[in-house]
């Protein structure tokens, strides 16, 4: 992007007769000033002046991974150029840039061809010069509505896959996403290298309360879901930071066994969730969907635990609750959670 004098001024050099239109120092300075005043400078300025590889390299030097977004259609969902017809070239380019994760959307692409297209991308990424995590937007919302999803195929093609429409920063949406996961029994498809993706986190974006955000984060941890922060980290509050850096809750999410947890019991808006961990312990989530503070109990019998006594550790406070016989009970705030780890004594 830039400016060239030729189309309007040609080779005009007669500054005596045409001082305003001749190719001269004054003209170029005036054009530069006009570009700034017109706002063209900001449209011309490249968003990545040193290239995307420079950004990826910088992120890698900070000990982080670099992900990128693209669409398998001719356009992205927001109307920018997609990858259709340039799949192999784009995969090669992404590898050269140092991309670690590709989030591939499916806008402006035929729904009935999604399986073949995402399979093609999976094969191209598998043959790339560097490993890249494949984040899919397949199955589509139409597939989900019709409940016609070939989940085994999805899990074999994608490393993570969306199974709901875009998340919203509101409590009602969190409930819908979680209920869909349970209704469709999606946990059976999750394993290391293949994860259900209920979408990015809304923690810290302002649409929910502190307790609701803790519930949101805890549920994603129990579901072995990707924990992709979606807030402005530069300006986040202390409360938001404490949620996004909750080490023992994150440890459940990242447990190497890779087994997705799920709902053990639900009654009158009070739920108990469990997730088996690699060290023979279990994470337990006591979740209060109601609007009043309520005690919730989990028993060792319903968890399938043989021992009458179990150690309980609170994962949010990072403190030991003690040893309990047969059951554990805790008061849970409205729309809140208590998340513990239950281990053999």
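^ structure tokens above, recovered residues below v
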């Amino acid at each position: 992007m830039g400016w060239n004098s030729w189309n309007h001024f040609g080779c005009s050099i007669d500054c005596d007769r045409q001082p305003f239109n001749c190719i001269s120092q004054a003209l170029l300075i005036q054009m530069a000033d006009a570009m700034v005043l017109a706002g063209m400078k900001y449209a011309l300025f490249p968003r990545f002046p040193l290239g995307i590889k420079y950004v990826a390299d910088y992120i890698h030097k900070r000990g982080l991974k670099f992900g990128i977004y693209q669409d398998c259609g001719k356009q992205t969902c927001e109307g920018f150029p997609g990858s259709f017809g340039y799949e192999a070239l784009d995969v090669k380019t992404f590898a050269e840039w140092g991309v670690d994760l590709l989030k591939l959307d499916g806008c402006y692409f035929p729904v009935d061809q999604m399986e073949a297209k995402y399979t093609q991308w999976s094969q191209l990424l598998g043959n790339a010069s560097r490993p890249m995590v494949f984040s899919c937007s397949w199955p589509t919302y139409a597939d989900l509505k019709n409940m016609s999803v070939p989940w085994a195929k999805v899990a074999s093609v994608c490393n993570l896959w969306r199974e709901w429409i875009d998340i919203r920063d509101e409590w009602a949406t969190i409930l819908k996403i979680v209920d869909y996961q349970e209704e469709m029994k999606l946990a059976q498809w999750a394993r290391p290298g293949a994860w259900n993706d209920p979408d990015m986190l809304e923690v810290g974006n302002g649409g929910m309360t502190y307790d609701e955000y803790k519930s949101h984060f805890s549920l994603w941890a129990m579901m072995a879901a990707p924990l992709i922060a979606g807030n402005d980290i530069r300006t986040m509050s202390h409360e938001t930071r404490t949620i996004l850096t909750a080490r023992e809750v994150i440890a459940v999410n990242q447990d190497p066994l890779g087994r997705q947890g799920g709902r053990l019991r639900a009654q009158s808006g009070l739920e108990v969730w469990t997730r088996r961990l690699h060290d023979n312990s279990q994470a337990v989530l006591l979740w209060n969907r109601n609007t009043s503070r309520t005690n919730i109990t989990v028993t060792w019998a319903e968890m399938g635990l043989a021992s009458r006594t179990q150690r309980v550790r609170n994962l949010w406070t990072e403190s030991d609750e003690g040893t309990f016989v047969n059951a554990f009970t805790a008061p849970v705030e409205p729309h809140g959670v208590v998340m513990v780890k239950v281990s053999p004594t």
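The chain has two domains: 2-254, 262-344.
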